[in-house]
Amino acid sequence: MSQGYPPPPPPGGQPPGWGAPPPFGGSAPLPPTTPYGYPGPTQPPGFGMPPQGPVPTPPPDNYLAWAVIATVFCCFLAGIPALLAATSVNERWMRGDQAGAREASLRARNWTIGAVLLGMVFWTTWMVGVFVLGWKDTLGDL
Q1: What pLDDT tens digit does each residue of the chain (142 aa) get?
Q2: How many other C-beta atoms are found inside a 10 Å radius of the C-beta of residue 62?
Q3: Which of 4, 74, 86, 121 is deepest in the core (most CB within 10 A)?
Q4: Distance in angstroms (rounded) separating the CA atoms of residues 88 and 102
Q5: Vertex 79: Cα angle to 75 and 84 (nearest 5)
Q6: What letter does residue 95 receive in the DSSP assignment?
């Protein structure tokens, strides 16, 4: 019976390599695992992920929503340059001018912050003048 078949199991026993489990606390050979203890993925060779080039960087934030809010609610005059800078960020990024897009993003952020600060100064001065100093003429006939 040596025609390429494994030898028969011993009578009344189990095949070689099979037997009673190791006693509690004993060491048993463990299969190779990934760092988290789960068996690693089995993939046929040649079917992996293709090699990828450099990861593209995302475009910088254009601060357009903040510029609109600052223009409407805070200071209209300082909000206009913020809007112009915010709308030019994406245009420059699409043209491939990454440095220009970052610069426009920085300008949009700075003009937006300036518009908010100027608006806060204006509205605070107006409220203090009307409610504390009694500038009643600024309210009209309310």
Answers
A1: 556 777 766 666 555 556 666 666 666 555 555 566 555 566 556 666 666 777 788 889 999 999 999 999 998 899 999 999 999 999 999 999 999 999 999 999 999 999 999 999 999 998 888 888 777 666 666 5
A2: 22
A3: 86
A4: 10
A5: 170
A6: H
Helices 64-73, 98-127: inter-axial angle, 10-degree rounding? 20
Q: Scanning the structure block, which residue is given the tokens 């040596």?
A: 2
Nearest CA to 67 out of 119, 117, 121, 108 is that of: 108
- From 93, 130, 123, 129, select the one nearest 108 (Cα to Cα): 93
CA R_g for the chain: 37
The residues, ordered by sequence, that sit 6+ positions from 31 with a Cβ below 8 Å of its Cβ are: 39
What span, in angstroms and rounded, lies between the C-alpha atoms of 129 and 60? Answer: 41
Count of alpha carbons within 13 angstroms of residue 34, beta-carbon side: 6
CA 82/CA 68 separation, integer angstroms: 8
